[in-house]
Design brief:
CATH topology of the largest domain: Rossmann fold
Helix content: 25-40%
Number of strands: 13
CATH superfamily of the largest domain: NAD(P)-binding Rossmann-like Domain
Strand order of the largest sheet: 3-2-1-4-5-6-7-8
Order of helices and strands: HHEHEHHEEHEHEEHEHHHHEHEHEHEHE
Radius of gyration: 25 Å
Bound molecules: nicotinamide-adenine-dinucleotide
Structural class: alpha/beta
């Protein structure tokens, strides 16, 4: 049903970003919502997933597994082609995914965004990176919103999943959808003709203890009907769905989760530096404190933050906090401490080499692990890049070894142009120091203990060999 947008409706939708979000109340009974709710409950609804990356692909797979028809949308033609050919480009999701989706009559992937009108629900899983001044970059979200708006039709449910600051769905995403819809000659009213919600993603690539189905899902609508419909959609493939008061609560809950991690990692990173001065092993301290059965949760130090979430999301909150004149000092300090970590590790490595009488310009250093966390091939924001570039800039010859990443690809900041070095006795012996940045299970730590001249360990990976290694082992 097409409803003209009256002045009252338009005014409400375009209210400024500082406006307190409406509290959602009882959903108004409406035939469009009822029809969509029934289609979702009976799994007759079709779903479009925009952005087939670490978040979108497993979500599309889970919805397909629940029996729904799924259309994947991505601007990257190579991903679309790979899925059509049965190739899964995200190895941690398992080999079966590619063939299963390619052979299914209920799944297809496309770069044709005009087809967005075909599906009943649209889930947006596009990147939300930072700009050059660490400000939120919503360009992917907004261009997607415009594509959706152009194809929008009555009866659709739109859910933003990309991590972002509170207010984005109401104040940025929805207006962009409406603007494109109006430009295409459509006047549809949100909450009546189409529905908009936010639901944060909690995927942790590589974690085997949880899956899309078992990780509880938080959902918040721009209005009560939208929240309820989005809840119905996720119930098709997620066991525990929590519908919260509105989209802003859902947006803020995701940032709290990630800020919580960033702040606690910063705390333990700072403690690592302090305890090192006191010649106390921070890892042993965390292990000892972890024996407390309540009121403590262990976090571990490292060479810096990596991945699409923890290094980035806190800055979204900090930016929004500044916008409303209430700086979040805690969050900013955590960002500062974590960002300094690669430099601290570089300093420790340089000092270790100097103590061993190796001049940095003659030094050969092997960095173990290019991925930002163990057993995956995800290099986004990986501190290993900073370590390699930083040591190389000081004059050392630096290589890396990572069984999951055969060669480096250029990033926003670095073009390292290196290939992974095979880890055998001869290669290990050819380096003055081995710097453990990521503790992949595939590394042979026994071989390292046997042949490495010096080991700088940022992950406590060599704890079991500390007596044998003696002064050849340095924590950083
Ligand atoms: N990676 C995680 O573990 C994780 C966890 C929770 C939340 N998130 C959030 O989810 C969002 C997506 O992250 P991700 O890790 O899946 O990113 P990703 O880079 O793996 O995937 C994003 C996909 O979107 C595609 N894309 C980019 N612009 C597009 C556009 N305009 N239209 C359609 N497709 C487009 C890219 O080609 C890519 O396939 C981000 O906001 C991120 O913060 C990520």
């Amino acid at each position: 049903m097409i409803v003209p947008l009256g002045p009252r409706r338009g005014g409400l939708l375009r209210a400024g970003p500082t406006r307190r979000p409406m509290r959602t109340e009882e959903p108004p009974p409406h035939e469009t919502a009822v029809a969509l709710r029934t289609a979702l409950a009976e799994k007759r609804a079709s779903v479009g997933v925009i952005g087939l990356g670490y978040v979108g692909l497993p979500l599309a797979y889970a919805l397909h597994g629940a029996g729904l028809r799924v259309v994947g949308f991505d601007t990257d033609a190579q991903k679309v082609e790979a899925l059509a050919e049965g190739r899964n480009y995200l190895k941690h999701l398992g080999e079966a995914l590619g063939a299963e989706l390619a052979e299914s009559a209920r799944f297809e992937a496309t770069t044709d965004f005009a087809r967005l009108g075909e599906v009943d629900a649209v889930l947006v899983c596009v990147p939300t990176p930072l700009g050059s001044a660490r400000e939120p970059d919503l360009s992917f979200v907004l261009s997607t919103a415009h594509s959706i708006g152009r194809a929008l039709r009555a009866g659709q449910l739109l859910v933003l999943e990309s991590t972002t600051y509170p207010g984005t769905t109401r104040d940025e995403f929805l207006p962009a959808v409406l603007e494109a819809a109006l430009a295409a000659g459509k006047s549809l009213e949100p909450g009546v003709d189409f529905f908009v919600a936010y639901s944060p993603e909690r995927a942790d690539p590589g974690r085997t203890t949880h899956s899309t189905a078992t990780i509880p899902k938080v959902v918040g609508g721009l209005d009560a009907t939208s929240g309820e419909l989005a809840g119905e959609l996720y119930r098709t493939c997620v066991e525990d769905v929590r519908v919260v008061t509105n989209a802003e609560v859902a947006e803020a809950s995701k940032l709290l989760e990630n800020v919580f991690r960033a702040v606690n990692i910063a705390l333990v990173n700072e403690l690592k530096v302090v305890l090192e001065r006191l010649d106390i092993n921070v890892w042993e301290v965390v292990e000892a404190a972890s024996t407390k059965p309540f009121g403590f949760m262990p976090f571990y130090p490292g060479p810096g933050l990596g991945g699409h979430c923890i290094p980035i999301d806190p800055f979204y909150l900090a930016w929004k906090a500044k916008q409303v004149g209430q700086p979040s000092r805690f969050v900013e300090l955590a960002g500062e401490i974590n960002t300094e970590m690669p430099d601290y590790v570089i300093g420790r490595t340089v000092q270790t080499l100097e103590n061993a009488g190796v001049a940095l310009r003659d030094a050969r250093v092997l960095v173990l692990g290019l991925a930002y966390k163990p057993d995956v091939d995800d290099t986004r924001e990986s501190p290993s890049f900073e370590l390699i570039a930083g040591l190389a800039a000081l004059g050392a010859h630096v290589d890396y070894s990572d069984p999951h990443i055969p060669r480096t690809v250029p990033t926003r900041k670095h073009d390292l142009r290196r290939e992974s070095v095979a880890l055998d006795a001869d290669s290990i012996r050819s380096y003055d120091a081995v710097l453990i940045a990521t503790a992949h299970r595939a590394f042979d730590y026994e071989l390292l203990a046997e042949h490495a001249a010096l080991i700088v360990d940022t992950r406590n990976a060599m704890a079991g060999f500390k007596d044998r290694l003696g002064s050849r082992l340095v924590r950083a």
